[in-house]
Amino acid sequence: MSETVFFTGGAGFIGMHVVPMLLEKGYKVRIYDNMFRGDRDRVAELVAGGNVELIDHDVRYGGAVLAAMKGCTKVIHAAALSINKSQADPDESMDVNLIGSQNVFSAAAELGIDRVVFCSTASVYGDPEKLPMHEDDRLNPLTPYCISKRASEDLLDFYHRRAGLSWIALRFFNVYGPGQKTEAYYTSVINHFVKRIHNGEPPVIDGRGEQSMDFIHVHDIARAIVLALESEKDNVPINVGTGIDTSIADLAKILIEASGADVEPIFNPRDVLVSRRAADITRAREVIGFEPTISVRDGMTDLIKTAEIG
Ligand SMILES: NC(=O)c1ccc[n+]([C@@H]2O[C@H](COP(=O)([O-])OP(=O)(O)OC[C@H]3O[C@@H](n4cnc5c(N)ncnc54)[C@H](O)[C@@H]3O)[C@@H](O)[C@H]2O)c1
């Protein structure tokens, strides 16, 4: 009999890339999502396939989470409110992101779930003191969202010590790819550039465009989640990025080249805080056998050719 994966937030951007991979591996999937941002049409198609069910409910209700998780062997916890929302409404953010985690992890411990994979974030580091960023670097979460993610990682460790819960927390870097909502906090710059290039306008870069991010394609993120669900080693946070920092100026160049547009970026001279990001992915290689497969150039080229620009 096939195992069932309990997947909170499974109807969201990343979830919609993970579910087909799980089905391909022979799992059944029980999505637990209040559909606040979930993709109803896509979920309905998956449910029609027979091996996916949707429980339209909220992670803030512990009793409902526990009841819904019964019969599952593995858990992916991705339900969360975004970083933008967390600054606007810290109360709701802590409720969903921290109490939600408590409800999911305590239920998993009580039911003897084999593995919990938690979707954490590179934002737990705050502004990095050095590159590449390593899992043992000092954490300095700066917003309620990041604070809740860090505290959720600590909670996993608590349930490991208390009940032997097996977990992996994946610290995603800057995720991009098909299906992404256009206002995504760190990667909104991609959407902004793509829109302008599509309109025949040059991308506008603040300062010299030296700020950088570690852009990782959602397909590789989904692969990392599936690897973490099945790895032999556990109970650690793991960075998931490419290990390469791409500056905003380089991003503009890549997107212009990929589109074939005849424009040059405009630099808007202005003092900007130059933040940079790049993951040390040694642990991802060692613990879950992860290797990124889509280069930023290939991923962005695909995106600019296929993106529906919002
Ligand atoms: N996308 C990124 O760049 C990124 C980066 C780092 C970490 N993450 C983390 O990965 C996870 C998935 O991200 P995503 O980009 O797919 O986000 P998303 O917003 O597309 O998906 C989150 C899902 O959670 C659901 N949800 C929200 N509140 C809920 C609640 N109270 N109860 C039940 N379901 C609820 C939403 O309806 C949505 O379907 C999140 O935990 C996020 O914090 C994402």
Descriptive notes:
The radius of gyration is 19 Å and the shape is globular. The strands form four sheets. A seven-stranded parallel beta sheet has the order 3-2-1-4-5-6-11, with helices on both faces. 42% of the residues lie in helices and 17% in strands. It has helices at 15-24, 40-48, 62-69, 83-88, 90-111, 144-163, 188-198, 218-230, 248-259, 282-288, 296-306; strands spanning 4-8, 28-32, 52-55, 74-77, 115-121, 167-172, 174-176, 204-206, 212-213, 215-217, 236-240, 246-247, 266-268. It folds into two domains: 4-174 and 217-240, NAD(P)-binding Rossmann-like Domain (Rossmann fold); 177-214 and 244-280 and 293-306, UDP-galactose 4-epimerase, domain 1 (Alpha-Beta Complex). β5, α6 (144-163) and β6 form a beta-alpha-beta unit. The model has no long low-confidence stretch (mean pLDDT 94). With 310 residues, the chain is of the alpha/beta class. Bound molecules: nicotinamide-adenine-dinucleotide (NAD). Residues 8-9, 11-15, 33-38, 58-60, 78-82, 96, 100, 119, 121, 172, 175, 184 line the site of nicotinamide-adenine-dinucleotide.
